């Protein structure tokens, strides 16, 4: 009888440790997210399931073209691409990205993408000053984010600049559906 109690206690202890480790990993290191909508096409598809790295930005700042997940409001997280960094001026003119007056190539669109997917059309011209907040440069602790599908994305053009405190983490791994399993580059 004592042996059964010992086995039962060992199982309970193992399960509690497993749940505790899962909780710690999900809370502080990695968490899943499901892409909701077409705003990141052609890079990410609606219902793609991804892993969010919550750890990276504890020690590093976001880089240009990182794909980030952030709290858009209390109920909703958005997934977008970082375009502008602190201290920079951002503008789009004639479908060209300008950072501090210099043209920057956005080479993250796949040249062999599925022809059935909409390729992002032209990005409407704008300057940082025209966005909510009216900043002339991106202030410290903030980034400018845009969806890859610029004609169908709620991003910094509507939301304004995103505080780095709103950022949950970065993501680059699609794990489901199986036929889309891949690592997304910049």
Automatic annotation (TrEMBL):
Lineage: superkingdom: Bacteria
Catalyses which reaction(s): Cleavage of hydrophobic, N-terminal signal or leader sequences from secreted and periplasmic proteins
Domain Peptidase S26 residue range list: 9-176
EC number: 3.4.21.89
GO molecular function: signal peptidase activity
Subcellular location(s) per record: Cell membrane; Membrane
Pfam families: Peptidase_S26
Root EC class: hydrolase
Topological type in the membrane: Single-pass type II membrane protein
Membrane spanning stretches: 12-35
Keywords: Hydrolase, Membrane, Protease, Transmembrane, Transmembrane helix
Main location: membrane
Family: Belongs to the peptidase S26 family.
Protein known as: Signal peptidase I
Phylogenetic lineage: Bacteria, Bacillati, Bacillota, Bacilli, Bacillales
Gene that encodes the chain: lepB
